[in-house]
User: What shape does this take?
Amino acid sequence: MTSSYSLYFPLLRLTFFCTLLVLGRAIFYPNLNQSTPFTFPDRVPLERSQFIERNAIVTKSFQPKYWSDLNGYQYQYLGFNVQVHYLQATDGDVPTYLKNYLLNDQNIKVIDKKGSTGFYRLFERDRIAYLTTCINSRGSSTINREQFFANRNNYDLRIDRLLPIVLGTEDPRDARCLWVTVSTSIEQRSIEVVHQQLEAAWQEIYAWWMPRFPKL
Assistant: This one.
């Protein structure tokens, strides 16, 4: 009996405190749950290559009945291009996005690799080589659902995020990612050399974009 009462009052105080926080948020910060629009930078300078220009792009869906077109930006450099799409509600499954936006069920050989930044996928189509992956808000880059939700479990479900979640400044599960695709012409080079170029460029691209991931 004594044990039940000893737990009752701390729980009551915690409930009361959380209720006050939620009420305060609703009164003083009614728009906290609304995501802040992300403004893509005009230029992303990289030491590895000369920046040329930025262009807005619309990536068309092969299945418009089920998948909307994606707005994004292409950053063109001397030797390669970088496409970035901001996905605000995703399961992080890059193969699904490739199927619905880039490959349209083409039988493409892919190579999945893991580096210091996380996971990424390499493939070729029409003499163009690609490196594609998903930059997460927390954790390393990922290319499938399992990796994406493993990041979410490791970085979203933490005690230090309890207060921001209660206040509404952060969502319990952050289902956002920057889908990045780096591409370059294969030309007369071996595919091994081209992959090395893409991987080297990706290291610098990731280092620039990760700390600038869109804020909620």
Summary: Helices lie at 2-28, 94-103, 145-155, 162-167, 191-209. The first helix runs from residue 2 to 28.
